[in-house]
Amino acid sequence: MKQLTTTSLCLALLVLAGGAAAATRDHDLQPEDTFSLTALDNLAVAPDGAAVAYTETRWGEGKTGRATDLWVTATAGGTPRRLTFDGFGGSGCTWSPDGRWLYFLGRDKAGRDTPPRDGSAQVWRLSPEGGTPVAVTRSAEPVEAFELSPDGQSIYYAVGKDQTDEAWSELLKKYDDLHYGHGVTELTEVRRLDLATWREDTAFGAARVIGEMALSPDGRRLAMITTSDNELIFKEGWSRVDVLDLASGAVTELTDQTWRDGHKSPYGWIDDLAWSADGRALAFAIAYDGFASDIWVAEERDGGWPLQKIVRPDPLHYDGGLTWRGPGRTLCYRGETMARVHVVAIENVAGGTQGRTAELTKGDLVVAGFGFDRKGAALAAIWETTTDANDVYLVSAPDKHRRLTRVNPQVDSWKLPQISHVSWTGEGGRTCWGILELPAGYQPGSGPLPAIIDLHGGPTASTRIGLRVWMYGRGLMPARGYALLSPNYRGSTGYGDAFLEELVGRENDIEVKDITAGVRWLIDQGLADPAKLGVMGWSNGGYLTNCLIAAEPDMFAAASSGAGVLDMVIQWGTEDTPGHVINFVGGLPWQQAEAYRKASPLYALDRVKTPTLIHVGGADPRVPVAHSRALYRALQHYLKVPTQLVEYPGEPHGLTTRHNRMAKMEWDLAWFDKYLLGK
């Protein structure tokens, strides 16, 4: 067998923190194990760096979905403390300046008719030592977001206020139980609550829709990402950054529409507001479908707010989490490169210039969140590795850290796949990459395996090197004896802007060839049995599954298509983010009719021979159910290809309940076992 091309170490037994011996890995992974994993989020470091707050999200039973609660742990070590129970919540977690309180968004599900105990989102306060949460807000409308003032004496919180079109207001109000294309807009009102007197007033009237807000460290200004409507596409190209002067009520618009002139796409959406400690620089990001995200900084100087575009070293891509470190002008974010995600710092961002870029973490890590204390000295982060699910770590140097939690101890006994980052030659001689997972006991030279090609969504996304055991195939398929390859095809993030953007205008073409080249590489390595190949994916992965079974009718013996696009015209006309299609195809259907046709696997379905399982959420707004029903109709009734449609009533773009996720996994495993293994 040829030597594998890898850039990471394969699976090795881990020595547990504190010097304890590693557990024996004797547990064969089962679908049920995916629901035992606890996910961490909402990390917040105490002002003095002595503690870290975070949330744990765990699966409930049946159709109850997941529940989130707030925890805290000391950075010096010790047992983490649970602060809330029964899915109370903990998003937007913020420490008071003196570290005595934690403020967060939570839901009291006591079942009463009035807030705050009616299950609506409200702001709550709780001591990090524990106790009973105290309701800070009692708003009749659910609280969407909040900001604590720098002195801890007041909060600013946002609620929705419906406004109807004056021209049709009578009918809109009379039949308000119906859904309308437009005419009813939920605008945002920002209220200010004094935490000493418990009096409140209106800081910003309901004139715009606010998607995100951030209070400046001096408490004088409120930055907001706003739109004129709450249709999602308005965030995709009509959103802007506003700064509200809280004393005068004056609003300064930092990014008017002319700012978007010259962008690679007019359909970018703005996110991740972050103020510098001196309150004179505001950072934010703009993301696109098909193009690399950009970081911008608006800095108050010379009587205005000139905008500076931050330079990212190639192939580093922005993955979120904009944060200024301590009192200076070092701007940090999660940076993705070569299937890893690290904390990245840009020094001396001031006066329209920037200093060097450095990584604050190193290794085969996928960082999901991070934060600093007030001085910027203590860095805490949530990450996963190839052998550990997510945990909280305290970082003292890029290659030195200490683990603060162990929220998934069961993983220590799991037989984990051998995970490596691999490469092959794709279309036109371009190097392509992916994540390869082999069964735990597989030895080089043992012969070919049945293999699954697992395709990520997006496509402006990637498969990372961290441990994944979930319903989309990773972890579970190797546990059943399959080799699993997750290609990061052209259009994936983390491999440079050119690699990402070469997909634009070439969907259902260049990435399909990259993937099929990866399949042939896997066969040439002696790892995959060419007679026992399967392909699966969700969202853009489902779309690519549809493309592949049409483009390569003899390559795959079975397929699982999840929430996949079949026709680009239907997608443009019915999805909630049409800018996605316009970016990739290069225009509107009547402008680029042939391009829409070429990007659509619908018109080549007569070539399909592959037995195909189809999954879709019944209320999916992103890839509406019409695609999956049309694919099923074509295969079942016209082409007589073995198929089954599994529709999950009421589910959105992802499956949200344990019951439905288990159904998907069991259907996938049974389908591939039948058509690949002959069971």
Characteristics of this structure?
Rossmann fold, 8-stranded mixed sheet, alpha+beta, 11 helices, 679 residues, disordered N terminus
Per DSSP, what share of the residues sits in E-state strands of 2 or more residues?
25-35%
Q: What is the rounded Rg?
A: 25 Å
Widest β-sheet, arrangement of strands: 29-30-32-31-33-34-35-36
Distance between the termini: 28 Å
Query: What would you call the shape?
Result: globular
Helix/strand/pairing category: alpha+beta
Q: Count of helical segments?
A: 11
* Mean pLDDT over the residues: 94
CATH-defined topology of the domain at 412-677:
Rossmann fold
How would you sum up this structure in a few lines?
With 679 residues, the protein is an alpha+beta fold. 15% of the residues lie in helices and 34% in strands.
Topology:
Elements: E1 39-45, E2 51-59, E3 66-74, E4 81-82, E5 89-95, E6 102-106, E7 122-126, E8 134-135, E9 143-148, E10 154-164, H1 169-174, E11 184-194, E12 200-215, E13 221-227, H2 232-235, E14 240-245, E15 251-253, E16 269-275, E17 281-287, E18 294-299, E19 307-309, E20 317-318, E21 323-325, E22 330-337, E23 340-346, E24 357-359, E25 366-372, E26 379-384, E27 391-397, E28 400-403, E29 418-425, E30 431-438, E31 449-455, H3 476-479, E32 483-488, H4 497-501, H5 510-524, E33 528-538, H6 540-551, E34 558-562, H7 568-574, H8 579-585, H9 593-598, E35 612-617, H10 626-638, E36 643-648, H11 658-677
Parallel strand pairs: 31-32, 31-33, 33-34, 34-35, 35-36
Antiparallel strand pairs: 1-2, 2-3, 3-4, 5-6, 6-7, 7-8, 9-10, 10-11, 11-12, 12-13, 13-14, 14-15, 16-17, 17-18, 18-19, 20-22, 21-22, 22-23, 23-24, 25-26, 26-27, 27-28, 29-30, 30-32
